Every structure is written in C-alpha cells, then in structure tokens.
C-alpha cells in the first residue's frame, strides 16, 4: 500500500498540463482586463470611423447623381 502511495505522489505526468492551463487562464484574465480598460477609447474610435464612412458614402452618392440637362460636347449635331 505504501508503495502505491509513493508511486502516486511521485508521478508528475499531469503537472505540465495543469501549468499550461494556469498560464492560459492568466493570459485570458490579462486580455479581458486590458480590453475592458480600453473599452471606452475603442468605442470612441470605432464610432468616429463609422461616422466618417457614413459621411463619405453619403457624399459619394450625391456626387454621382447626374443632371439630365447637361449636353455632351463630343456629339455632332445632325
């Protein structure tokens, strides 16, 4: 019985997996903390980009409208 307990306590095969799991958890917590801290500035930046793109789209769509009263100078009268 003591031999079995000694083998159980000396077996370290699962220690590496646990260490990797702890490192992954620590990285996740750090990433969540960083993104939460930057949340306000990221929201402001994406709102600014969105507004600029909407204005550019609106401007582009009004610039492409043509007036039917213009004449084409390259055509010859018949």
Description:
The chain is an all-alpha fold. The protein is built from 3 helices and no strands. It has helices at 2-10, 15-37, 39-63. The termini are far apart.
Number of helices: 3
Work out the strand percent: under 5%
Shape: rod-shaped
Distance between the termini: 113 Å
Average pLDDT value?
82
pLDDT < 50 runs, ≥5 residues: none
- Give the number of DSSP strands: 0
Q: Helix and strand string, N-terminal first?
A: HHH
Largest sheet: none
Oligomer: single chain
Can you give the helix content as a percent range? over 70%
Rg over CA atoms, rounded to whole Å, is 33 Å
Structural class of the helices, strands and pairings?
mainly alpha
Summarize the structure.
Helix content is 73%, strand content 0%. It has 3 helices and no strands.
Draw up the topology in text.
Layout: H1 2-10, H2 15-37, H3 39-63
């Amino acid at each position: 019985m003591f031999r079995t307990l000694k083998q159980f306590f000396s077996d370290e095969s699962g220690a590496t997996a646990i260490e990797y799991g702890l490192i992954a958890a620590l990285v996740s917590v750090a990433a969540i903390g960083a993104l939460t801290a930057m949340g306000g500035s990221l929201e402001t930046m994406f709102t600014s980009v969105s507004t600029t793109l909407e204005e550019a789209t609106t401007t582009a769509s009004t610039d492409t409208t043509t007036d039917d009263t213009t004449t084409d100078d390259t055509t010859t009268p018949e």
